[in-house]
Design goal:
The chain is α+β, with helices and mostly antiparallel strands. The chain contains four helices and seven strands; from the N terminus they run E-E-E-E-H-E-E-E-H-H-H. The longest helix is centred in the C-terminal third of the chain and has 15 residues. The relative contact order is 0.22.
């Protein structure tokens, strides 16, 4: 039937980066999110103009939000966000071989940073304490990749470690 249908259009591709240290810790960024009036812990996220190289956008966001650069990258996930009302699409990357990078945070963002074990972050997502969808999806995707041998063995082993044990 004919009807009016509103669609929100986006000029940027959503980008999420799961940075993983050799010991299995990951970086989470904390910030206040105005639309829900809530504080959120998330992986580094941002945007890249549609038509540009998403990996370059991911590199920029990782440096801006976490002050890191990565020697190794793998595209882990493609997603659609709120596809009932918007055309927003996104990509998620797992990044490792991390080193410090001069960060240039966006002046409008007040960010906190925490390094937590991958399994702790996954448990926080399972408990509903991490609710950002890109972060939750990337944690589950990275868990699957680690279990299925789609990440380097030592990295996967460190990610899955819990209290000195592995799964």
């Amino acid at each position: 039937a004919r009807t009016l249908y509103g669609v929100v259009g986006f000029k940027n591709l959503a980008i999420g980066i799961l940075p993983v240290f050799p010991d299995g810790r990951i970086v989470l960024v904390g910030q206040h999110r105005f639309p829900l009036g809530d504080y959120s812990w998330e992986i580094p996220e941002g945007g890249a103009p549609v038509g540009s190289d998403p990996l370059e956008g991911a590199r920029r966001e990782l440096a801006e939000e976490a002050g890191l650069q990565a020697g190794e990258w793998i595209e882990a996930l493609r997603f659609q966000l709120s596809n009932s009302i918007s055309d927003e699409r996104g990509l998620g990357f797992v990044a490792w071989d991390l080193s410090p990078s001069p960060g240039r945070p966006d002046p409008t963002e007040a960010l906190a940073m925490a390094a937590v074990s991958f399994m702790e972050a996954l448990e926080l997502a399972l408990a509903g304490r991490i609710q950002d969808l890109i972060t939750v999806a990337m944690l589950f995707r990275a868990y699957h990749m680690a279990c299925e041998g789609q990440l380097p063995g030592p990295l996967a082993h460190a990610m899955l470690a819990r209290n000195g044990e592995t799964r």
